[in-house]
Amino acid sequence: MRRFRDHPAPRLMGEATALPFTDGSFGAAVAVNMLYHLPDPLVALREARRVLAPGGVFVAATPSRADSPELARVWRPSRTTFDAEEAPELVAAVFERVEVERWDALAARRGCGARLSGHAIRSA
Fold it and tell me: Which of 6, 39, 81, 96 is deepest in the core (most CB within 10 A)?
């Protein structure tokens, strides 16, 4: 909590499923690698839509179950409530237009390579 208090103002902590903002407050809303932690991401998607101004943009990013294929023999990501494979359909249930950008990148950490894959989803 200390890190939050040390962040420059303005700052506000809230729940993605009950955003403390009036309807149409923002031109953009972003959810990066967090919707899969929610039991029902549709609630947060509807909240993002509610706080967007007309013409606003929503952007989400989430990992794929095909992430890190080099680890498939020993580890496989579990299915979540907002996987890259189903995320576009969930977003389309709330937003009229959905664009998907699939990505796959090599991440290096301490001399080991790992493949990261997921989707970035843009809606309007």
Answer: 81
Say if CB 7 and CB 33 are below 8 A apart.
no
Contact between residue 118 and residue 61 where contact means Cβ atoms under 8 Å apart: yes
Residue 103: closest CA among 66, 73, 76, 78: 66
Tokens of 119: 């989707």
Is residue 115 within 8 A of residue 70, CB to CB? The reply is yes
Distances (CA, A) of 58 to 33, 81, 121: 14, 18, 8
Report the distance separating Cα 119 and Cα 117, nearest Å. 7
Tens-digit pLDDT profile for residues 109-124: 444 444 445 666 667 6
Q: Report the DSSP beta bridge partners of residue 100.
A: 121
Amino acid at residue number 12: L
